[in-house]
Write a structure and sequence with these properties.
Elements (H helix, E strand, L loop, with lengths): L1 E9 L4 H15 L3 E10 L10 E4 L7 H19 L3 E4 L2 H14 L5 E3 L19 E4 L2 H11 L7 E3 L18 E5 L9 H9 L6 E5 L5 H11 L5 E5 L13 E4 L8 H8 L4 E4 L5 H4 L6 E4 L4 H13 L7 H6 L6 H21 L1
Parallel strand pairs: 1-2, 1-4, 2-3, 4-5, 5-6, 6-7, 8-9, 8-11, 9-10, 11-12, 12-13
Helix pairs in contact: 1-11, 2-3, 5-6, 5-9
InterPro entries: Glyco_trans_1, Glyco_trans_4-like_N
Protein name: Glycosyl transferase
């Protein structure tokens, strides 16, 4: 198959880029031809290494109409030259552009959507109605797509989840209970302040490793300082490969207000690390098995989160079995997820041929 993946501008530093790279590499290993088209390019280009990618458009102009045409006309040209069997758009606007391109080209090319964010954070979600099918990274986002598109989406939404490399080494457990946070340091979505508030309530001997950077870094650092706990925190900043910096950990903590499908939970569990997460929309409840591979608390429940963390401090010997934690995410393996995506695409191609 010849597959085109079309996305808006990327920072190059997020989990979405990691998913793109993993899926594209696995498709190529399956003898598929895959090309990415980035409308606006990528600020950091390291993730594009060895991938077939075209960066399109000019972000420098202040003229919105000129900027739009700097994307759409070159994209039309690139797609027409590539002649894909299927197009997957990662934003509602992109889906709309691509669907109109197939009509202008007068070709029966299925156009799918593959959004990676909670739909309330996405502009013009109603344009998803132009997609022939939808790859959804969580059950919750699938429900949101159904609500937006309505009856037209019946039988066209497929939950694929995000893939994780399960062939990684287990992270050892430390002698001193150690909590791990990996992600952006900001409070609107990630609610990192809740993490600091929870840590401040703990008694006994413990440590925490915080990997990441973001707009609220100074605020949460100063908050930890005011609580007098900064001597227990290790602030590592943003890391290209955070797992290379983590020798030991007792549990990973996710305090988010919302997610698309939190890849960091899968990455931690694949290394045998149980996860304490808010039961936010969307994804954690599809990953976390309470008391099996982790724990769920309500969004904003600092007391509940601190209570579970205190149990880990007091009784580290009762942490979930690391082998069970690892095996619990096997269904999200790269092979399983990409095989599912390939099967869906093949089905869509067959439907287009027979229509």
């Amino acid at each position: 198959m010849r597959i085109a993946i079309v996305s808006n501008k990327r920072s190059g530093l997020g989990g979405m880029e990691a998913v793109f790279r993993t899926v594209m590499q696995e498709l190529v290993r399956n003898q598929d031809e895959v090309k990415m088209f980035l409308m606006g390019g990528s600020l950091d280009k390291n993730w594009l290494r060895d991938l077939d990618c075209v960066e399109i458009g000019d972000q420098r102009t202040d003229n919105a109409l000129r900027r739009r045409y700097s994307f759409t006309l070159p994209l039309f040209w690139e797609i027409s030259q590539y002649q894909p069997d299927v197009i997957i758009g990662c934003d509602p606007n992109v889906v709309c552009y691509c669907k109109w391109m197939t009509r202008i080209l007068n070709r029966k090319i299925p156009v799918g959507s593959w959004v990676h964010n909670e739909l309330s954070t996405i502009w013009k979600v109603q344009l998803l109605k132009y997609a022939d099918f939808h790859l959804s990274i969580s059950n919750g986002i699938a429900e949101q797509i159904q609500a937006v598109v309505g009856s037209e989406a019946q039988g066209k939404i497929f939950v694929t989840h995000n893939p994780v490399d399960v062939e990684v080494l287990e992270v050892a457990r430390p002698e001193v209970p150690t909590f791990l946070y990996i992600g952006r340091l900001e409070n609107r979505q990630k609610r990192v302040r809740d993490l600091i508030d929870s840590l401040a309530k703990l008694e006994g001997e413990w440590k925490a490793i915080i990997v990441g950077d973001g707009p609220d870094r100074d605020e949460v650092y100063n908050l930890a300082q005011s609580y007098g706990i900064n001597d227990r925190l290790e602030w590592l900043g943003w890391k290209k490969n955070p797992w290379a910096e983590i020798p030991r950990a007792s549990a990973l903590v996710l305090t988010s207000n919302f997610e698309g499908f939190p890849l960091v939970l899968l990455e931690a569990m694949a290394r045998g690390i149980p996860c304490l997460s808010t039961d936010c929309q969307h994804g954690p409840a599809e990953i976390v098995i309470p008391e099996g591979n982790g724990w769920l608390v309500s969004v904003g429940d600092v007391e509940g989160m601190a209570g579970i963390m205190q149990l880990i401090v007091d009784q580290p010997e009762h942490l979930p079995d690391p082998q069970f934690v690892k095996e619990s995410v096997n269904k999200f393996s790269i092979t399983n997820v990409v095989d599912n995506i390939r099967g869906i695409i093949e089905q869509q191609l067959q439907m287009k041929v027979s229509s």
